[in-house]
Amino acid sequence: MGYYPIFLRMAERRCVVIGGGGVAERKVEGLLAVGASVTVISPALTARLEALAGQGRIRHVGREYGPGDLAGSELAFVATDDGQVNAAVARDGRAAGVWVNAADDPANCDFILPSVLRRGALVVAVATGGESPALSRAIREELEAYLTEDYAVLAEVVAEVRRELRERARVPDPEAWRRALDQDLRRLIAEGRREEAKARLLWRLRAGICA
Question: Do residues 62 and 35 share a domain?
Fold first, then answer.
């Protein structure tokens, strides 16, 4: 069985992270970046996680994982190297209806975390079904060279144009968008000619609507 790719809105979503080391720290940082509410369960924390707890940005439960610790959570992330803990959290999660991700342990995962490339609103996720995180990371690094920071500006321009057209009740079809998002548009963005790029995109899309 494969995985169904999905992006979740995480703002205020209650998440629990089991573990307090470097892997847990990376997961916590990622969750906080998208507005999740995070509880960390671990006897010890990295200096960064201690600082986050001290600032009140995460809740810390200073002990080992135990039954009932998933209560009230929606997602759980296991960041330990203990297979028994992974299995226990996976079992408890399935009983409680909480989705579980266990680092480097696909058998105990309800969902996996892809390797992610972000360029502003543009997000590209690469996954191998949990079989080879190293390959996912290598492919993401290759994409970084192609999807430069200019793509963040391109995403902003496209979003602005889409909003303006919707306000005028003008909705281009997918083919019109495909034609308009051409190399000339991207060249203008790369050259720092943002407003020219926006004007050109509006012109091409209006022409596509009228065609």
Answer: yes
Domain assignment of residue 44, given as a range: 14-113
Both 24 and 89 in one domain: the answer is yes
Bridge partners (DSSP) of residue 130 are none
Number of domains in the chain: 3
- Element holding 179 (H helix, E strand): helix 174-180
By DSSP bridging, strand 37-41 and strand 59-61 are parallel
pLDDT at 130 over 90: no
Pick from 178, 166, 160, 172: nearest CA to 205: 172
Q: Is the pLDDT of residue 104 over 90?
A: no
Question: Is residue 161 domain-resident?
Answer: yes
Q: Which of 211, 155, 208, 149 is nearest to 185 (CA)?
A: 155
Placement of tokens 């080879």 in the chain: 132
- Give the C-alpha separation, 108 to 98, whole Å: 12
Rounded to 5°, angle at Cα 123 from 146 and 159: 100
* pLDDT at residue 169, rounded to an integer: 87
Both 20 and 91 in one domain: the answer is yes
For the record, the structure tokens of 122 come out as: 């543009």
- Per-chain mean pLDDT for the chain: 94
State the pLDDT at residue 106: 87
CATH number at residue 93: 3.40.50.720
Residues 100 and 165 in one domain: no
Structure token pair of residue 42: 């671990």
